[in-house]
Design goal:
alpha+beta
Length: about 90
């Protein structure tokens, strides 16, 4: 995780100040390191946005709050989408 100021944290996703014109979106997730053949959890860069609102839309559009490993049916997926949308609405209200 970089030393930039965290603007919003929603679940395992953060929106941070990058510079005075952009924000950056990062997600805490498990990644595979081929050299050591192990899995570790770390902050992974997901993209830049021009504002916090566009970053929230990117989180929703790219489904960054959905845990694809736990989705076993369409009902599970729809429930996670609804939960994701509710978390984003809570973040906007704060």
């Amino acid at each position: 995780m970089s030393d930039k100021k965290v603007l919003i944290t929603v679940g395992n996703v953060t929106i941070k100040e990058y510079d005075n014109m952009n924000v950056v979106v990062e997600r805490y997730e498990e990644v595979f390191i081929p050299k050591t053949k192990e899995k570790i959890k770390k902050w992974v860069f997901k993209g830049y946005s021009r504002s916090v609102l566009s970053a929230l839309l990117m989180i929703q559009r790219n489904e960054l709050l959905i845990d694809r490993g736990s989705v076993t049916s369409l009902d599970d997926y729809v429930k996670q989408v609804n939960d994701s949308n509710n978390k984003l609405l809570e973040a906007v209200r704060e």
